[in-house]
Amino acid sequence: MDKEMGQKNTLILKVADDKLAKDIKVIEMDPGRGICDCFIIMTGRNKNHTQAIADALEDALYENEMPPLRKDGFREGSWILLDCEETIVHIFTADQRDFYNLEGLWSNENKSDKKE
User: Fold this and answer.
1) Fewest CB within 10 A of the end CB: N or C in the chain?
2) Which pTM value belongs to this model?
3) Is there a contact between 10 and 31 (Cβ–Cβ < 8 Å)?
4) Residue 83: beta bridge partners?
């Protein structure tokens, strides 16, 4: 992990914690995938909370000259994605996080790739 990515991820984790996001997880990705270097996944209490977390993250990233490339799902608020280049941030409501189960999906996919 390069220094800038480390600083960006540290900022994301701090802001998420400050905004009371729950169950914050970092998933390191397989470097050969090319999607990104890691996912940061967190849960908000409801749609208003996920939107407040996303706003705070976006503001902090802009203030530190590391703006996200894209924000998606903000209006609906149940799954907000911030594309921060090498890091992709997922902000879920609890039901959506359980439904999509990214932690399980990516850990299972990584295990199946290693068996091949």
Assistant:
1) C
2) 0.88
3) no
4) 70, 88
